[in-house]
Each structure stands twice: as C-alpha cells, then as structure tokens.
Amino acid sequence: MKAAAFLYPWDVVGDSDAPARLADLGIRQVTLASAYHSTRALTPRHPRHRIVTAAHAAVLYPPGDRWQGRELRPYAAGDWAPGDAYGEAARALCDAGLDVHSWVVLAHNSRMGDEHPATSVVNAYGDRYPWAPCIAQPATRAYLVDLAVEAAVRPGEETRGTELESCGWYGLAHLHAHDKIGGVTLGEAGQYLMSLCFCGACREGYAGQGLDPDQLAVAVRGALEPVWRGREEEGGGWPAVEKLLGADRTAATRAWREETARTLQETVVAAVRAAAPTGFQVLLHADPVTHHSGANAGVDPGHILSVGDGVVVPCTGGAHLLEPFAARAADGAVLAANLTVVSGMGGSPATLAADAARAAELGATELRLYHAGLASDADLAHVAEALSHAE
After folding, report:
1. Helix, strand or coil for residue 69?
2. CA dihedral (368, 37, 96, 158) positive or negative
3. Of 5, 156, 171, 182, which residue is least crowded by CB atoms under 10 Å?
4. Is residue 371 reached through a cis peptide bond, with omega within 30 degrees of 0 on the bond before it?
C-alpha cells in the first residue's frame, strides 16, 4: 500500500540529507505544505535549527499577481519560509525519487480574521472566531478558490497532486495558544451549536431556510444553557443536537451549512482541475459526519467522492471513519488513512504495521503519515520497519 508522509518546507530547506533520509523510510510520496496556518514546530534533525515559529498563516512561496488590488489575499511567509521555500523543497524531494503533492490549508487563518474581522465566523453570542473564515461569504469564497488554485498547482513539474485541508466549515474547536476553553465539556451537540455562524451571509442563509435568524440565535443560546450548567448529553451525536435545539431548526441549519460547504468544495476542486495538468490528483481531508467542522471537513461520502479523486481520513485511534467512504467508493478512488506517527503527539508508530493492516481491511488504499518532520529518530525507525514489511 502506497505510503506518503506530511512535511514542511523548512524540514528540507537547509538540510541536504533530508530527502534521502525520507526516501529511506520506504515512503513514495511527500505531501508538502504550500499554504499553512500559524504553528510552532520541532525540527529534531535539522543542522541549523530545532524550533520553527510560523507567526501567521502564509503561503510558502511568492504569491502571484492575481492578488494585486484585492483586499483578501494570502500573506507571504516570514523568515520561517523565505522566497520559494516550497519550490526549493519540492525540487530536492523529487531529485531523491519522491513524488510531491501540495498540502493546502484553506479556511483557517487567524491573521486574516484579526485584520478583516468581518470575514470570521460569529457565534450566537456575537463572539468572533478569527481563526475561522466564514465560507458563506462571497468574498471569502472567492479568496479560498483562488488560494486553492495557486497553492495547489505550483509551477514546474514537481507537484503531481494536492491535498486540501479545511475545505469546509471551521468552528469552535481549535488548538489555540494557551487554550482555556476545556473547562466545560461541550460534547458533540455543544460543539455544533457553538460553531453555528451568525454573520450577515449566514443570517440570510438561515432566512432562506425559513428561519428567523434573531429567533434562531435566541434558541441557540437557550439550548446551550444546560451545557454551561454542566449537564451531560444523553446519547450524544446528532439526536442530542435535535433535542437541544429542536428537530426543525436543527435540520434547517444543517441544510444551509451542508449546501454551503458542498458548493464550495465543488467550486474549489473544479477550479484546481481547470488549472492543473492532466492526471493531477485532488484529495480532500474529510470526515464522513456532515455536520462536523474543522481541518477534516464534514462531508457526504458519496458526494465528495464524486467531486474529488479521493479523501484523506483521520484514523489515529481507530480507522472506523473509513467505512462510510469505502461503502461509496468507486474503483480507483483513493481512501488514504491518516495515521499519526509522532509518539509525543498521541501517535503510535510502534503499531503502525497493525494499524495500517486494519485500515486496509476497512477500505484504505493508501497511508498518510503525520508527520515525518516532527517525529523523533525512534519514531521514524518504527515507520521504516513497518513500511519494509508492507505490501
């Protein structure tokens, strides 16, 4: 089974040994970040540094002329990825015999939310989520489509496909600096209600579904009161959302959000394909539960597999999320099981062989390993051992 590893350009640029070291693991592809959110990353083998701090969301190459005169445009990276860091890393990886696919983070950008607050998701209390651009707003959608095209289809022959992350709704859940929102357990229902957006575009969307947006906001706040008092969800899942908000209101909000995400995904993939060479592969990071939000956007499995060439599915802790995609996948669709191989981040590289075999039983056709640049030498040794026995 084909295995690919995620990587940042700064894992390669300035480390001439990195491409061969990666190829020696037994991977065939690197999924290389071209547009990425802010992060602080460890580089345990780099000869020049050990910590890279990416201060804000940025493209890791020089932004093109398409952005001139536009209010919403991608930010260039600072000293963590100067110049065309993506291109430099991609060429080095290709020279080592590795396929390179771009890794594009879309609806996740805290700096844009800080500088353009009207673009952000707004919850029922009026709180803005600067990390979460609202994908219903026309200007934001246009920005995301053009960012996907530019960041996915990099010039030259190195990039042979792309993997699109956060191509859908982003909500409350977010790894934030010094996070302090875990004091109350929200559960799945609370997460959904706290992720509903009430910006102008979404208010119009709810009205189009027959809801009064002001009354809906009041109802959402009321539905959340038991959550703030610490009451446990009974049963959880979507029935718990319906119980808190009411079945009719819940269905209408879900219809609006699903249509918005679905049409964005269709538009993004079509635009990338129109700009890409023949044979360019387009995958989306996805969760088979349509009302989920985050980096792995909630999707309808049958629909998303009719739009893209396949999906990358989070499988750390269990591969059960693959099953709904496997049930709807046609021949040739890529179902990539995403397994964390960094033990310090909750991964289990020592059980990679068994985890990969289980994922294959549930329908996985490929592996994605998160993240070759962050893993220790011991973690990578487990990866190499597991891949040496893979079929």
Report:
1. coil
2. positive
3. 182
4. yes
Per-residue model confidence as pLDDT tens digits over 262-284 = 999 999 999 999 999 999 999 99
CA torsion 169-171-176-182 (nearest 10°) is -150
* Rounded Cα distance, 249 and 255, in Å: 10
CA atoms within 13 A on the CB side of 227: 24
Q: Within 13 A of 30's CA, how many CA atoms are on the CB side?
A: 32
CA-to-CA dists, residue 266 to 110, 262, 365, angstroms: 25, 6, 23
Tokens of 26: 């037994």
Instruction: Please give the structure tokens belonging to residue 183.
Output: 């004091």
Long-range contacts of 113-121 (CB under 8 A, 24+ apart): 116/71, 116/72, 118/199, 119/72, 120/199, 121/169, 121/170, 121/171, 121/195, 121/197, 121/199
How much of the chain is helix, strand and coil, in % rounded to 5? 40, 20, 40
Residue with structure tokens 């998701």? 121
Cα–Cα dist 202/205, whole Å: 5
Interval 206-223: pLDDT, tens = 999 999 999 999 999 999
d(CA 162, CA 276): 10
